[in-house]
Automatic annotation (TrEMBL):
UniProt domain Chemokine interleukin-8-like: residue ranges: 50-108
Subcellular location field: Secreted
Gene behind this protein: LOC140701673
InterPro entries the UniProt entry points to: Chemokine_b/g/d, Chemokine_IL8-like_dom, Interleukin_8-like_sf
Protein name: C-C motif chemokine 14-like
Record-linked Gene3D superfamilies: 2.40.50.40
Signal sequence region: 1-25
Annotated Pfam families: IL8
Lineage, opening ranks: Eukaryota, Metazoa, Chordata, Craniata, Vertebrata
Family annotation (PANTHER family): C-C MOTIF CHEMOKINE 3 (PTHR12015:SF183), SMALL INDUCIBLE CYTOKINE A (PTHR12015)
Alphabetical list of SMART domains matching this protein: SCY
Keywords: Cytokine, Secreted, Signal
Organism: Pogona vitticeps (central bearded dragon)
Amino acid sequence: MKISGTALPLFVFLLVASFVLVSNTADEDTKVQAEAAHSLLPDLGDLIGPDKCCHNYTSKAVPCHLLKSYFYADGQCFLHAIIFVSRKNKKICANPEDKWVQKCQRELPPPEY
């Protein structure tokens, strides 16, 4: 099986990010992010292909007070998603049809473009 040169660094980043998030459970923000580690995105500048895309949604609801902003996944992405930014600048992909996502969207300022 051949892996592209861009897929391997992304996989390594996600693996390391998952380990770091799971190993540091000192506060509530980190615990929520560890549960949602599979849906965290690298910094947007590191994404390849259509900008601001998600590959899956978080399976856990994130308390709105742990979030500072959100934006919409790029219209060219395969998965329609809301990308929340936590107070620690972690990006979390969420399903726009989930009730908790809609609640947090109402509580947070609208995205800036």
